[in-house]
Structures are given as structure tokens and as C-alpha cells.
User: Fold these one by one.
Assistant:
Number 1:
Amino acid sequence: MIELQDVSKAYGDQVVLDRFCHVFATGSFTAISGPSGIGKTTLLQVIAGLLPIEKGQIVLDGQVTNAQDQILHPSVCRIGFVFQFPALWPHMTVRQNVLYGLIHQPRSLQEERLAEIITALDIADLLDKRPAELSGGQARRVSLARTLITHPRLLLLDEPLNNLDARLKDQVLAIVADYRIKQQATVLWVTHDPGEVSGLASAVGQFNPGGLV
């Protein structure tokens, strides 16, 4: 369970989260919608521990992960983040990018999970390429693979279907749905179009600075 307790975040005079309160149940799939620039991405980033907050706290399964006096790294909390833009390391191959989160794990585990994820996302033929050689859709699938391969318990996705055609959108939706069930993961999915996840989301929330409606 994720609890946001009176969380406040501002950029200068611009208040993005104003004593924001919400509880996301373990294993739930929540679609978060709202106009551009309102703060949906900031919400995901403070939940992930990528941004500090000014007030309040965020509690994940009973552990405080983000508060005024402490912030835990996403990897420590098993939080996975799929960014709005792929953000792949340009000097690494696709294989190296995807395996980055498992570099301290046994080689056998790395290869097992790599084989599973490249088949699911249809990126086996991209492993030796570098990000500059990928199309937008390919880069997005690689970014998703890099996140899912670590088996996060909390999966945060920021507009993950951008630059994908209809077939690949359906494929990604199926992969995330299957992952959520198998890993009993909690999913937060930011989107401009809640209809794209209408068959999967257990709740759809309209963002405002104080909470989700």
C-alpha cells in the first residue's frame, strides 16, 4: 500500500502538490489523468523518491520512503519508473541498458530474465544496437524492458504508450497487465487518455493539487 500523507511540493511560487493525500491499495492499477503541466509527472517523481518534498510523507508498505528529513532511492524500495521519454544511456548497447538494474545479480538470473523480457517486448534483434540507432517506439520498449526486468513491486509509468502503433500499444498493455498479476505489483499509469487503460485500471483519478478525484 502507498500512502501520501499531506504531501506538499512546489517549484518556487508554483505549488504542484498542496497537502496531497491519497492511498493506493497493494496490487491496484490506477490511471491518473489531467491536462499537461498540472503536476502528474511530479506526483510520480515524488512517489519514486526522485524529488524531495517540502511537507508530509510518503509511506510504502509501512516504510517512510520520502519525507522532509529522508528520502530513499527507488532501487532500495523496489520502485520501477518508466519515463515519458526513454532516457536510455547513449554509450551503452540495448543489452547493457536493459541489464543495468541487474548488474549485481548472478549471470544466470540476468540471462533468464533477459530472455523473458526481450521475447515479450519483441526487442531480441535490438540487443547490440545503441539508443541512437533506435526508433522512438523501439526506445520506449527498451525503456520498459529495463524497468520490468528488475521486478519492481511498485510500477510507475508516465505516458508509456507514446510513439507506439496500435499493435504495440496492445502488446505493452498486455505485458503490464500480466506483470501486475504475476508480481502482485501496484501500478500507477499517467495518461492523457484514460480510455487506453479502461479495461485494466481498477480506478481512474483526475489529478488536482490536493488529491485524486
Number 2:
Amino acid sequence: MHPYVRSGLMAVAVASAIGLVVAGFLAAESDEVTLPDAIQRIIPTDGALIAPQGNVGVDLSDDHTGVLMIDGREIPGFQATSVESLGQVFFSPGPGKEIREFRAGTHRITVVYWDKAKTRDDGASFSWTFRVG
């Protein structure tokens, strides 16, 4: 093979590799979850790693309320920390609660939320995951 052809092929291979790395970084940045309009923030972010006693929850718009479900189990309202006027609902596991601590692995959290002027039956839901190391 002619040296110029070999050099040209090598340049194409290097350029392709660099393009794949750049595309990977751009794709990683665009993996951020798009939240519904009524959800201002989720804690933790989708896929985040937290401690076994970590705090999870959601900050809804002020005119919404909701309940949390973790791995399919609804968290009773008296075990959640809620600021009704701000649309915030959070949960930290502990003794005497539905979940004493989060086990290692991936967990799914769902918020069922609705406009305060309506009923839960009129609501929607949103889910994301978090991990415990």
C-alpha cells in the first residue's frame, strides 16, 4: 500500500474516533430528563447515586400536590415531609417508616401529582430512578 494512502486512511480513522468521542459527550449531556411543566425539580436527579438513608422527593409547582411511590409502595402522607404551600413532597427512610433504608441497587420513584383545585383522579404521574451504593 502506498504511504500516502496509508496516511490518508490513518487520518480518517483518527478523525472518526474523535468524532465518536465528541458525539458521546454530546449525547451524555442530552440524556437529562425532561420534566413535565408541573414538576420543578426531582431529588435525586434521574440515575443519581444516594446513601441508604438519602432524601428523595419532588418540588412541584405551587398549585400542585402529590404523593410519592417508591418501588411500587405508596409512602403514607404522615411519613413524608410536605410543604403544601410550595408543592414539595419529600421522604427520608428511617425506623417506623414504610422503608427503613434503601437497599443497594436501583430504585424507581414515582410521583402522582394533581392540581390542588382538582382531585387525584385528575392527576398524572412521573417516574425516575436512583441508585444506592
Number 3:
Amino acid sequence: MKEDKNSPNKLNTEQAESLLSTLQSRFEANTDRHPDLNWADVRAKLDAHPNKLWSLNEMERTGGEPDVVGYDDASGEYMFYDCAPQSPEGRRSLCYDQEALESRKKNKPAGSAFAMAEAMGIALLTEAEYRHLQTLGEFDTSTSSWLVTPSKVRALGGAIFGDRRYDTVWVYHNGADSYYAARGFRGSLRV
């Protein structure tokens, strides 16, 4: 992997190798998430797109525990989702988006889920992606995660989130400007 020491969004060789080792270990420990895929192919794709490592490292650094959850035949991309058991700890207490953050007059959170995801180079999970993730294990049993919200709901001031309670996956709504210590967001990245 070629290093670009001038870019703030690049990992050095040591950081990249450490992350790749972590990703490989997680991939091999959770083959049920990707039964028909192999690490050598994923690694080749990551080597061909080293710019994606920085985003994966941000997912890891903030507690997301990213892992491969599928392969898109149409685009030829591997799909990484945050697979931490609970909503990533380093991404909680955020309102939904920048508009919601700006609308709060007092007790503003530190930021918004959308702004943080954009800064990390990832996307929030959609409801469909979240439901797919929940078929791979039990996630958000004591937390919740903001999800990409339909524009009609967002235009009315709301946003949706998901969680798992009573062995059931729930998608519900809240004001987009709300924030909670147990609500964060899960991201996705295509490589």
C-alpha cells in the first residue's frame, strides 16, 4: 500500500496493517455474516481501494466493529456495516442531522449523526439495511440507532431509529432534534 503522508484521511502503513489484521480476525470469527465470501477477495478489494481504509478505521475507532455483511453482484462491492452489539459508543448523544442541531435553542448535543457520518466517509443504515443486519445477530438490545429517514417524515420534523427489544426489531420515530445517551448511529461502507 502506498502511503500519502500529506492527506489527513489516510492511514500510515502500520495503522493500515493493524486495521486489516483486526478486520480479518473479525471476518474469520463471524463467517455466518458472510458464508459465501472469503477474506482474500475482500483484502484484494481493500488493497485496490486504500482510501476506504480511513473510513473503516473511523468506524473501528468510534466503536462500530465493522464487518462484511454481503457482496453486491451488480456493483462488485463488498458491504461493511457496523456490527458492534450495541450502537457504537463513540457516536451517541447526537441529534439526527444538521438542521435538527441548528433548530435546538438550548442543550444542544455535540453534533449530528449525519454530519458525523459524512465526516467519516460512511452512510447511515437505511431501514432495509438495519433489518438485514438484525438477521445476522441481535443488535441494539439496550441501545438504539438513527436510520435514514423518509423525506416526508423528515420534512415534518421527525426521524426514525431502530432497536431490538422482546426478540423483535422495532423501527420507530422521534423528533429529529432529540438525542439520548443510548442512541447513536450505525454506518455502512461499500468497497
